[in-house]
Amino acid sequence: MMQRLWLLFAQTVTVGLALWFIVFTLQPGWLGRGGKVGAHTFAVQEAVPGAAPAHATYAEAARRAMPAVVNIFTSKEAPQAANPLLRDPLFRRFFGERGEEDKQASLGSGVIVGAQGYILTNNHVVEAADEIEVALADGRKASATIVGTDPETDLAVIKVNLNNLPAITFGHPEHSKVGDVVLAIGNPFGVGQTVTMGIISATGRNHLGINAFENFIQTDAAINPGNSGGALIDAQGNLLGINSAIYSRSGGSLGIGFAIPVSTVKMVMESILRHGHVVRGWIGVEPQDITPELAESFGLAQKNGAIIAGVLKNGPADKAGVRPGDILLAVQGKPVSDTTEMLNLIAQLTPGKPAKISVLRRSQRLELEVQIGKRPNLRREED
After folding, report:
1. Catalytic residue flag (residue 172)
2. Which of 109, 150, 154, 220 is labelled catalytic?
3. 165-to-115, 136, 138 alpha-carbon distances in Å
4. What CA–CA distance (Å, rounded) separates 97 from 89?
5. Which domain holds residue 105?
6. CATH number assigned to the domain comprising residue 353
7. What is the pTM assigned to this prediction?
8. Is 55 one of the annotated active-site residues of the chain?
9. Is 154 a catalytic site residue?
10. pLDDT tens, residue by residue, 223-269
Protein backbone atom coordinates (compact mmCIF):
# COMPACT_ATOMS: atom_id res chain seq x y z
CA MET A 1 0.00 0.00 0.00
CA MET A 2 2.76 2.44 0.91
CA GLN A 3 4.59 1.60 -2.29
CA ARG A 4 1.53 2.52 -4.40
CA LEU A 5 1.10 5.86 -2.57
CA TRP A 6 4.77 6.72 -3.08
CA LEU A 7 4.52 5.91 -6.78
CA LEU A 8 1.42 8.10 -7.15
CA PHE A 9 3.15 10.97 -5.32
CA ALA A 10 6.20 10.72 -7.57
CA GLN A 11 4.11 10.75 -10.73
CA THR A 12 2.12 13.78 -9.51
CA VAL A 13 5.31 15.74 -8.77
CA THR A 14 6.80 14.83 -12.16
CA VAL A 15 3.68 15.95 -14.04
CA GLY A 16 3.56 19.20 -12.03
CA LEU A 17 7.18 20.05 -12.76
CA ALA A 18 6.66 19.33 -16.45
CA LEU A 19 3.64 21.65 -16.55
CA TRP A 20 5.55 24.40 -14.70
CA PHE A 21 8.46 24.15 -17.17
CA ILE A 22 6.14 24.40 -20.18
CA VAL A 23 4.28 27.43 -18.77
CA PHE A 24 7.55 29.16 -17.75
CA THR A 25 8.96 28.67 -21.24
CA LEU A 26 5.95 29.55 -23.36
CA GLN A 27 3.81 31.87 -21.21
CA PRO A 28 5.95 33.43 -18.46
CA GLY A 29 3.34 36.17 -17.96
CA TRP A 30 1.01 33.57 -16.39
CA LEU A 31 3.45 33.21 -13.50
CA GLY A 32 3.16 36.84 -12.37
CA ARG A 33 6.52 38.01 -11.01
CA GLY A 34 8.14 34.95 -12.51
CA GLY A 35 7.71 36.55 -15.96
CA LYS A 36 10.48 39.01 -15.17
CA VAL A 37 13.07 36.35 -14.65
CA GLY A 38 15.99 36.99 -17.00
CA ALA A 39 14.64 40.40 -18.22
CA HIS A 40 17.06 43.37 -18.15
CA THR A 41 15.98 47.02 -18.03
CA PHE A 42 18.21 50.10 -18.22
CA ALA A 43 17.99 53.84 -18.99
CA VAL A 44 19.47 55.01 -22.33
CA GLN A 45 21.44 58.24 -22.59
CA GLU A 46 19.86 60.91 -24.80
CA ALA A 47 21.37 64.12 -26.13
CA VAL A 48 19.93 67.42 -24.95
CA PRO A 49 17.54 68.70 -27.65
CA GLY A 50 19.21 71.46 -29.70
CA ALA A 51 22.64 70.84 -28.19
CA ALA A 52 25.63 71.57 -30.45
CA PRO A 53 27.20 68.40 -31.86
CA ALA A 54 30.59 67.44 -30.52
CA HIS A 55 32.02 67.09 -34.05
CA ALA A 56 32.52 69.81 -36.69
CA THR A 57 29.48 70.64 -38.80
CA TYR A 58 28.99 72.78 -41.89
CA ALA A 59 25.21 72.78 -41.73
CA GLU A 60 25.06 76.56 -41.24
CA ALA A 61 27.27 77.22 -44.25
CA ALA A 62 25.13 74.93 -46.39
CA ARG A 63 21.93 76.50 -45.05
CA ARG A 64 23.15 79.97 -46.05
CA ALA A 65 24.23 79.05 -49.56
CA MET A 66 21.81 76.35 -50.73
CA PRO A 67 18.83 78.66 -51.44
CA ALA A 68 20.99 80.60 -53.93
CA VAL A 69 22.00 77.50 -55.93
CA VAL A 70 19.58 76.51 -58.69
CA ASN A 71 19.14 73.59 -61.07
CA ILE A 72 19.27 74.42 -64.77
CA PHE A 73 17.55 72.32 -67.42
CA THR A 74 18.23 73.10 -71.07
CA SER A 75 17.00 71.67 -74.34
CA LYS A 76 17.87 72.21 -77.96
CA GLU A 77 16.63 70.90 -81.24
CA ALA A 78 18.45 67.76 -82.32
CA PRO A 79 20.46 68.17 -85.55
CA GLN A 80 18.23 65.78 -87.49
CA ALA A 81 15.15 67.74 -86.42
CA ALA A 82 16.44 70.77 -88.31
CA ASN A 83 16.30 68.88 -91.62
CA PRO A 84 13.68 70.54 -93.88
CA LEU A 85 12.53 67.06 -94.94
CA LEU A 86 11.07 66.56 -91.47
CA ARG A 87 8.70 69.48 -92.08
CA ASP A 88 7.43 68.02 -95.34
CA PRO A 89 3.69 67.06 -95.03
CA LEU A 90 4.18 63.91 -97.13
CA PHE A 91 7.06 62.76 -94.92
CA ARG A 92 4.96 63.37 -91.80
CA ARG A 93 2.06 61.45 -93.30
CA PHE A 94 4.16 58.31 -93.61
CA PHE A 95 6.43 58.66 -90.60
CA GLY A 96 4.20 60.62 -88.23
CA GLU A 97 4.75 63.76 -86.18
CA ARG A 98 8.01 64.10 -84.32
CA GLY A 99 7.98 65.84 -80.95
CA GLU A 100 10.00 65.65 -77.77
CA GLU A 101 12.33 62.99 -79.17
CA ASP A 102 13.70 65.68 -81.51
CA LYS A 103 15.08 67.63 -78.54
CA GLN A 104 18.36 67.03 -76.74
CA ALA A 105 18.14 67.73 -73.01
CA SER A 106 20.96 68.48 -70.61
CA LEU A 107 21.29 69.74 -67.06
CA GLY A 108 23.56 71.81 -64.89
CA SER A 109 23.56 74.21 -61.97
CA GLY A 110 23.71 77.93 -61.39
CA VAL A 111 24.17 80.50 -58.63
CA ILE A 112 21.89 83.46 -57.96
CA VAL A 113 24.06 86.57 -57.72
CA GLY A 114 21.42 89.29 -57.84
CA ALA A 115 18.01 89.63 -56.22
CA GLN A 116 16.72 90.93 -59.58
CA GLY A 117 17.09 87.48 -61.14
CA TYR A 118 20.70 87.34 -62.39
CA ILE A 119 22.24 83.87 -62.28
CA LEU A 120 25.81 82.76 -62.97
CA THR A 121 26.55 79.43 -64.64
CA ASN A 122 28.96 77.83 -67.09
CA ASN A 123 28.84 78.76 -70.74
CA HIS A 124 28.85 75.09 -71.74
CA VAL A 125 25.67 74.55 -69.71
CA VAL A 126 23.60 77.03 -71.75
CA GLU A 127 25.42 77.41 -75.08
CA ALA A 128 23.26 76.65 -78.11
CA ALA A 129 20.23 75.99 -75.87
CA ASP A 130 16.82 76.73 -77.34
CA GLU A 131 15.10 76.63 -73.95
CA ILE A 132 16.44 77.20 -70.45
CA GLU A 133 14.44 76.39 -67.33
CA VAL A 134 15.60 77.20 -63.82
CA ALA A 135 14.37 75.34 -60.74
CA LEU A 136 14.87 77.09 -57.40
CA ALA A 137 15.53 75.36 -54.10
CA ASP A 138 12.11 76.51 -52.83
CA GLY A 139 10.33 74.65 -55.65
CA ARG A 140 9.66 77.57 -58.00
CA LYS A 141 10.47 77.23 -61.70
CA ALA A 142 10.96 79.88 -64.37
CA SER A 143 12.22 80.24 -67.92
CA ALA A 144 15.54 82.03 -68.31
CA THR A 145 17.18 84.12 -71.02
CA ILE A 146 20.89 84.56 -71.72
CA VAL A 147 22.28 87.99 -70.80
CA GLY A 148 25.79 87.27 -72.08
CA THR A 149 28.44 84.57 -72.32
CA ASP A 150 32.22 84.33 -72.19
CA PRO A 151 33.47 81.11 -73.82
CA GLU A 152 37.10 81.96 -72.97
CA THR A 153 36.44 81.52 -69.24
CA ASP A 154 33.39 79.24 -69.69
CA LEU A 155 31.09 81.62 -67.81
CA ALA A 156 27.61 82.89 -68.63
CA VAL A 157 25.02 85.17 -67.05
CA ILE A 158 21.33 84.30 -67.43
CA LYS A 159 18.23 85.99 -66.02
CA VAL A 160 14.82 84.92 -64.74
CA ASN A 161 11.85 87.23 -64.22
CA LEU A 162 11.49 86.66 -60.49
CA ASN A 163 12.01 89.15 -57.69
CA ASN A 164 13.41 88.97 -54.16
CA LEU A 165 15.63 86.01 -54.90
CA PRO A 166 18.17 84.75 -52.32
CA ALA A 167 21.49 86.03 -53.71
CA ILE A 168 24.70 84.40 -52.52
CA THR A 169 27.44 86.30 -50.67
CA PHE A 170 30.80 86.55 -52.46
CA GLY A 171 33.88 85.42 -50.56
CA HIS A 172 37.59 86.15 -50.93
CA PRO A 173 39.43 83.29 -52.68
CA GLU A 174 42.66 85.30 -52.59
CA HIS A 175 42.71 84.64 -48.84
CA SER A 176 42.01 80.92 -49.20
CA LYS A 177 44.76 78.42 -48.49
CA VAL A 178 45.47 74.87 -49.53
CA GLY A 179 43.80 72.66 -46.92
CA ASP A 180 40.82 74.96 -46.25
CA VAL A 181 37.49 73.13 -46.09
CA VAL A 182 35.11 73.83 -48.99
CA LEU A 183 31.64 72.62 -49.98
CA ALA A 184 30.39 72.00 -53.52
CA ILE A 185 26.68 72.52 -54.16
CA GLY A 186 24.91 71.48 -57.34
CA ASN A 187 22.68 68.96 -59.09
CA PRO A 188 24.88 65.93 -59.88
CA PHE A 189 23.39 63.51 -62.39
CA GLY A 190 20.03 65.24 -61.93
CA VAL A 191 19.36 63.62 -58.54
CA GLY A 192 18.55 66.99 -56.93
CA GLN A 193 20.43 69.57 -54.93
CA THR A 194 23.43 67.95 -53.25
CA VAL A 195 26.22 69.16 -50.96
CA THR A 196 29.66 67.52 -50.92
CA MET A 197 32.68 68.38 -48.80
CA GLY A 198 36.42 68.51 -49.44
CA ILE A 199 39.40 70.80 -49.18
CA ILE A 200 41.21 73.20 -51.47
CA SER A 201 43.84 71.04 -53.14
CA ALA A 202 45.59 73.83 -55.08
CA THR A 203 45.10 77.41 -56.25
CA GLY A 204 46.05 79.19 -59.45
CA ARG A 205 45.88 76.06 -61.60
CA ASN A 206 46.51 76.78 -65.30
CA HIS A 207 48.05 75.16 -68.39
CA LEU A 208 45.20 72.63 -68.27
CA GLY A 209 43.92 73.32 -71.76
CA ILE A 210 40.35 73.73 -70.52
CA ASN A 211 39.86 77.46 -71.18
CA ALA A 212 41.82 80.25 -72.84
CA PHE A 213 42.07 82.05 -69.48
CA GLU A 214 42.71 79.73 -66.53
CA ASN A 215 43.19 80.44 -62.84
CA PHE A 216 41.37 77.52 -61.24
CA ILE A 217 40.80 76.52 -57.65
CA GLN A 218 41.37 72.77 -57.44
CA THR A 219 39.34 70.77 -54.92
CA ASP A 220 38.67 67.16 -53.98
CA ALA A 221 35.03 67.88 -53.08
CA ALA A 222 32.97 65.52 -55.26
CA ILE A 223 31.96 67.29 -58.50
CA ASN A 224 30.04 65.24 -61.06
CA PRO A 225 28.14 65.88 -64.31
CA GLY A 226 25.31 68.25 -63.43
CA ASN A 227 27.43 70.12 -60.88
CA SER A 228 28.76 72.44 -63.61
CA GLY A 229 27.85 76.04 -62.84
CA GLY A 230 27.20 75.29 -59.17
CA ALA A 231 28.80 76.89 -56.14
CA LEU A 232 32.05 76.18 -54.35
CA ILE A 233 31.69 77.81 -50.93
CA ASP A 234 33.85 78.26 -47.85
CA ALA A 235 33.04 77.06 -44.33
CA GLN A 236 31.00 80.24 -43.72
CA GLY A 237 28.81 79.78 -46.80
CA ASN A 238 30.49 82.44 -48.98
CA LEU A 239 31.02 81.86 -52.69
CA LEU A 240 34.63 81.08 -53.62
CA GLY A 241 34.12 79.88 -57.18
CA ILE A 242 31.90 78.43 -59.89
CA ASN A 243 32.40 74.69 -60.40
CA SER A 244 33.46 74.21 -64.00
CA ALA A 245 35.33 71.01 -64.81
CA ILE A 246 36.61 67.69 -63.49
CA TYR A 247 39.45 65.38 -64.36
CA SER A 248 37.91 61.96 -64.89
CA ARG A 249 38.46 58.76 -66.84
CA SER A 250 35.06 57.33 -65.94
CA GLY A 251 32.80 60.38 -66.16
CA GLY A 252 32.46 60.52 -62.37
CA SER A 253 34.41 62.27 -59.65
CA LEU A 254 38.00 61.17 -59.05
CA GLY A 255 38.70 63.88 -56.52
CA ILE A 256 40.11 66.39 -59.01
CA GLY A 257 37.67 69.21 -59.67
CA PHE A 258 38.20 72.78 -60.83
CA ALA A 259 36.30 75.96 -59.98
CA ILE A 260 36.61 79.44 -61.49
CA PRO A 261 37.46 81.86 -58.63
CA VAL A 262 35.09 84.74 -57.91
CA SER A 263 37.87 87.24 -58.68
CA THR A 264 37.54 86.14 -62.33
CA VAL A 265 33.77 85.71 -62.02
CA LYS A 266 33.23 89.29 -60.85
CA MET A 267 35.25 90.76 -63.71
CA VAL A 268 33.41 88.69 -66.31
CA MET A 269 29.98 89.31 -64.78
CA GLU A 270 30.45 93.08 -64.54
CA SER A 271 31.67 93.27 -68.15
CA ILE A 272 28.73 91.20 -69.40
CA LEU A 273 26.20 93.32 -67.51
CA ARG A 274 27.81 96.51 -68.83
CA HIS A 275 28.60 95.56 -72.43
CA GLY A 276 26.74 92.30 -73.07
CA HIS A 277 30.11 90.57 -73.54
CA VAL A 278 33.59 90.64 -72.03
CA VAL A 279 35.98 93.35 -73.21
CA ARG A 280 39.66 92.40 -73.00
CA GLY A 281 42.92 93.95 -74.07
CA TRP A 282 44.84 92.60 -77.08
CA ILE A 283 48.08 93.46 -78.87
CA GLY A 284 48.11 90.99 -81.78
CA VAL A 285 50.97 88.61 -81.10
CA GLU A 286 51.39 84.84 -80.97
CA PRO A 287 53.36 83.92 -77.83
CA GLN A 288 55.27 80.76 -76.99
CA ASP A 289 56.64 79.54 -73.67
CA ILE A 290 60.41 79.46 -73.21
CA THR A 291 61.34 75.81 -72.84
CA PRO A 292 64.82 74.51 -71.99
CA GLU A 293 65.09 73.21 -75.55
CA LEU A 294 64.22 76.62 -77.05
CA ALA A 295 66.58 78.40 -74.68
CA GLU A 296 69.42 76.11 -75.71
CA SER A 297 68.54 76.31 -79.41
CA PHE A 298 68.51 80.12 -79.45
CA GLY A 299 71.32 80.50 -76.93
CA LEU A 300 69.04 82.27 -74.45
CA ALA A 301 70.14 82.90 -70.91
CA GLN A 302 66.62 84.16 -70.17
CA LYS A 303 64.39 81.42 -68.70
CA ASN A 304 61.33 83.59 -67.90
CA GLY A 305 59.04 85.46 -70.23
CA ALA A 306 57.29 84.60 -73.48
CA ILE A 307 58.84 84.41 -76.92
CA ILE A 308 56.95 86.36 -79.58
CA ALA A 309 56.63 83.74 -82.33
CA GLY A 310 54.48 85.89 -84.58
CA VAL A 311 53.22 89.49 -84.90
CA LEU A 312 49.98 90.43 -86.65
CA LYS A 313 50.69 92.87 -89.47
CA ASN A 314 49.41 96.38 -88.68
CA GLY A 315 48.29 95.17 -85.26
CA PRO A 316 48.96 97.08 -82.03
CA ALA A 317 52.24 95.25 -81.33
CA ASP A 318 53.45 95.64 -84.92
CA LYS A 319 52.82 99.38 -84.81
CA ALA A 320 54.67 99.60 -81.48
CA GLY A 321 57.79 97.97 -82.94
CA VAL A 322 57.51 94.46 -81.50
CA ARG A 323 59.30 91.91 -83.69
CA PRO A 324 59.21 88.10 -83.95
CA GLY A 325 61.90 86.64 -81.70
CA ASP A 326 61.47 89.30 -79.02
CA ILE A 327 61.01 88.03 -75.48
CA LEU A 328 58.23 89.80 -73.57
CA LEU A 329 59.48 90.41 -70.04
CA ALA A 330 56.91 92.73 -68.43
CA VAL A 331 53.55 94.42 -69.01
CA GLN A 332 52.97 97.72 -67.21
CA GLY A 333 55.87 96.88 -64.91
CA LYS A 334 54.48 93.46 -63.95
CA PRO A 335 56.87 90.60 -64.77
CA VAL A 336 55.81 87.93 -67.27
CA SER A 337 56.82 84.38 -66.37
CA ASP A 338 55.05 82.53 -69.20
CA THR A 339 52.41 82.88 -71.92
CA THR A 340 49.51 82.29 -69.51
CA GLU A 341 50.56 85.19 -67.32
CA MET A 342 51.14 87.34 -70.40
CA LEU A 343 47.63 86.63 -71.72
CA ASN A 344 46.08 87.48 -68.35
CA LEU A 345 48.06 90.72 -67.91
CA ILE A 346 47.26 92.00 -71.39
CA ALA A 347 43.59 90.97 -71.14
CA GLN A 348 43.21 93.18 -68.06
CA LEU A 349 44.32 96.30 -69.96
CA THR A 350 41.74 98.77 -71.28
CA PRO A 351 41.38 98.85 -75.09
CA GLY A 352 42.16 102.24 -76.61
CA LYS A 353 44.70 103.19 -73.95
CA PRO A 354 48.52 103.01 -74.15
CA ALA A 355 50.56 100.57 -72.08
CA LYS A 356 54.27 100.05 -71.44
CA ILE A 357 55.81 96.68 -72.31
CA SER A 358 59.39 95.48 -71.83
CA VAL A 359 61.02 93.18 -74.37
CA LEU A 360 64.41 91.54 -74.70
CA ARG A 361 65.93 91.74 -78.20
CA ARG A 362 69.42 90.36 -78.85
CA SER A 363 70.32 90.65 -75.15
CA GLN A 364 69.14 94.28 -75.09
CA ARG A 365 66.14 95.34 -73.01
CA LEU A 366 63.74 97.71 -74.78
CA GLU A 367 60.82 99.69 -73.40
CA LEU A 368 57.96 100.06 -75.89
CA GLU A 369 54.58 101.77 -75.76
CA VAL A 370 51.70 99.91 -77.37
CA GLN A 371 48.17 101.14 -78.01
CA ILE A 372 45.98 98.38 -76.58
CA GLY A 373 43.38 96.93 -78.95
CA LYS A 374 40.19 94.98 -78.26
CA ARG A 375 40.57 91.23 -78.15
CA PRO A 376 38.56 89.45 -80.87
CA ASN A 377 36.11 86.76 -79.81
CA LEU A 378 38.49 83.88 -80.46
CA ARG A 379 39.24 80.76 -78.43
CA ARG A 380 42.79 80.56 -79.68
CA GLU A 381 45.53 81.22 -77.15
CA GLU A 382 47.03 84.25 -78.81
CA ASP A 383 47.25 87.91 -77.88
Report:
1. no
2. 154
3. 5, 9, 10
4. 10
5. 59-77+99-160
6. 2.30.42.10
7. 0.71
8. no
9. yes
10. 888 888 999 999 999 999 999 887 766 666 677 889 999 989 998 99
